[in-house]
Structures are given as C-alpha cells and as structure tokens.
Amino acid sequence: MGRPKNFSREEVLEKAMPVFWKHGFADTSLQELERATGVNKSGLYGEFRDKEDLFVACLRHYLESQEKRGFLTREPFGWKNVETFLKNGPLNKGEQQGCFSVNSMREFAILPNEAYEVVAENRALLQRLLAMNIEAEEPKMAPSAIAELVLSFFSGLCIERNLKSGKTSSTRKIENFMAALRSL
Amino acid sequence: MGRPKNFSREEVLEKAMPVFWKHGFADTSLQELERATGVNKSGLYGEFRDKEDLFVACLRHYLESQEKRGFLTREPFGWKNVETFLKNGPLNKGEQQGCFSVNSMREFAILPNEAYEVVAENRALLQRLLAMNIEAEEPKMAPSAIAELVLSFFSGLCIERNLKSGKTSSTRKIENFMAALRSL
DNA sequence: GAGATATTGAACTATTTAGTTCTTTATCAG
DNA sequence: CTGATAAAGAACTAAATAGTTCAATATCTC
N or C: which end of chain A has fewer CB within 10 A? Predict the structure, then answer.
C-alpha cells in the first residue's frame, strides 16, 4: 500500500458543488475549485477526468441528495407534499440559491451531453412523483398535466431566486399557486 | 470629415444579441462577437466601453424590442392577452431559445449591477401590465397576486426551452395553466 | 526500520482571454 | 488633387485558462 489520500470523493463533491451552483460551469475556474475543495489540481485530476467530469459528478451528487430529502414520497400523498416541495425545494442558504439542476439548464449549450441526460431524467422522475401525489387528490384535470404545471412553476421559482426578494413573498406566492391547483 | 463607419450601433446589437442569448456572458468570447457582428475589436471598443457594456446594451435592445411586440397592451385587456404573452413571449427561432432576459438572471453573479437593474425594472413593468389585464377580468384573487404567478410560470417556461420538447406540448401546458387562472 | 507505492504540491505548457496600440486605408471638405 | 480626419485591420500585451508532468513526500506492509 502507498500513502492514503487525505480527501474523499464525497468531500470534494460537497465542496465543489456550491461553487458550480453559484457561478455555473463556464465561470468557475480550476483555481476556484482548488481553493474551495482544498485539493490541488493533480488531486482533482486523479479523481476526475476533467472539469466537465467533475461538474457532472457534482450534478449527480446534488440530485441524489435532493432525492433523499423525499418531499414527494412522504405518506400520505397529496397537495401537502406538493406544497412542501415548492416551498423547500429551491434552497436559499447563502451562496446556494435556487436549484443547481435548474441553474444548469441555462448552460446546456456548453455542457457535456451527460449533463443534459442527468437533468432530463431527474425531471421525468419528479414529474412522476408529482403526478402520483396529485392523483391521490382526484382532481378533474389529468394529474400528469397538473404535474407539468407544477414543474414549470417550480423552475420559475428557482431562477427567480437570483433576484433579491423576501422569503415571505415567495411563500405567499406558493400558497396562491396551491390555491389555484386545488380547484382543478 | 473623415471616413464614415460602415456599421451602425443597431446592427451590431442585433447581431451580438443572439450570441449572448445562446452562450451567456461568460462563455461568449470577443472573437465570437467579432465574427458574429463582422466588426473587429477596435470597432467594437470604439462603440462600447467593454464586453460588459456591450452585453447590457444588447439586453436593453432586447427588452425594447420585446416591449414593441406589445402583447400586453392590446385592447381589450384580459386573459387573451396573458395567454398570447405566455405563448409568444419565449422565442424559439433557431439559436434564440427562451427569453434573453430570463437567461441572464442565471449570471447576475458575474454581470454588472446595471444588468440586474435593467432586468428587475422590466419585470416590474411586466408585473404591472399583467395585473392590468387580469384586473379587467375581475377575478376573486388579487390581480397583482395572480400576475406574480404568471410571471413565475413564464420564467419557468423560458428556461425549460433549453430542454428539447415539442411546441405542441408547451401550448397544451399553457392552455391548462390558463384554465387554472380563469377559475381564480 | 527499509522499501514499495500512491498522493501531493509545485513547476510547467500551450492556448485563450480581454483589452490596447499603432499602422494602413478609405472618405470627406476645400 | 491635397490634407485632414476617422475608421479598419492587424500586431501586440499581460493575464488567466485547462490540463500535464515530475520530483518530493507521507504512509503502509513486511
């Protein structure tokens, strides 16, 4: 055996993610990634093929951690879960504003195909989970159609986090949206 | 008098805009801007202070051209205008996907303050125009609250244009959303 | 403790970046 | 035609970029 490395893949992802989250792919330099992770280039390149590879790994890590929060899989299924998803999905802790996944959509033009696939797949999953919760409420409109509306509204909320605006106003907006949904 | 320049500010903005629109600020190089506009660096720097200045000018130019389309000021005011706004606001011609303004929101962290102000001001305007149209329908919920919902949904539609998905599905989604609004 | 081994850190490379400067060239007024 | 003027083109600069290489170093097994 040789010298053990003094960082774990997990740790690196956890620290690199907020940087990509805030600055996106193009505007994040390797220097910033070194500083944020405390791992220098040769360490990073030992673990990841290149900057793109690290980015996609961060994206995957983010989506997994979001899935673990499980807003849409709590029993009983219903509007309450949808509301929690909208209220707590887009984060707001310091640098990490909105949703990393939604933010990334803006950069598909320069991101590897894999990034697109990861995001698209996750959205399909969300769509199914939303529909499942909505179906439990037996609305008149097709659950999958309502789920689409929720996902678009969610995406809008996420990018709007880039604007300065109070948390209370966002909460009120979500409650109004939920009121509209419940009448469907 | 000296030699007359063979490009107009307008022309440059018109040609530079789609580049920024698609690639954002960070990932657009001066080389690309030279190629797209047909004006070389000294020409560009003669007309604009720097890359940031050119970007903000493009943003302003975009918002003005969108205002001119006047979806929300056509008489009679009402849901019909809101629907037209949602259906035709986010563009889809070739490179120009979604809304340049919404796309830019993702990059506020690295954009000059001016960009933020221009976008925020335009959103405030949209908010007022939407509320005006909604008020004409005399809904039970406060018009400005509904206008907020529309603007968030609109923002969501815009970034979702970065995903491949048919125009028909988007149209259907908007119609479902409008159905929900009309019941408010 | 010795030797094998894998990580680490730093120096290095080649390219690209935004931005500047200076020479060449085109067009106008007289 | 001439001289003034201003734009255009290209060469240049300094800094930053992603990615590579290699010697120094730390830790494990035996």
Answer: N
CA–CA distance, A142 with A135 (Å, rounded to integer): 8
Q: How far apart are CA B180 and CA A134, in angstroms?
A: 15
Give the pair of three-digit tokens for residue A117. 């696939």
In terms of CA atoms, which chain A residue is nearest residue B151?
Answer: A156
- The answer to whether residue A55 neighbours chain B at the CB level (below 8 Å) is no
- Round the CA-based radius of gyration of chain B to a whole number and report it: 18
Kindly report, residue by residue over A43-90, the tens digit of the pLDDT.
999 999 999 999 999 999 999 999 999 999 999 999 999 999 999 989
Pick from A105, A148, A176: CB nearest B162? A105
Helix ranges (DSSP H) in B107-142? 113-135
Chain CA centroid to CA B99, Å: 4
* Distance (Å) of CA A68 to CA A20, A44, A150, A158: 21, 26, 20, 19
**Gap between the Cα atoms of A138 and A135, Å rounded:** 5
Residue B46, nucleotide of least CA–C1' distance: D7
Instruction: Name the one residue in this structure whose structure tokens are 């970065």.
Output: B162
By three-state DSSP, how is residue B179 classified?
helix
Whether the pTM exceeds 0.90: the reply is yes
What type of residue is A16? A
Per-residue flag: A128 CB under 7 A of strand C:
no
Among the listed residues B149, B48, B155, the one whose alpha carbon sits nearest the alpha carbon of residue B100? B155
Q: Kindly report, residue by residue over B165-174, the tens digit of the pLDDT.
A: 877 889 999 9
- Around Cβ B96, how many Cβ atoms within 10 Å? 17
Cα distances (Å, whole numbers) of residue B135 to A44, A152, B72, B138, B178: 56, 24, 13, 5, 15
Q: Which of B52, B50, B45 is nearest to B111 (CA)?
A: B52
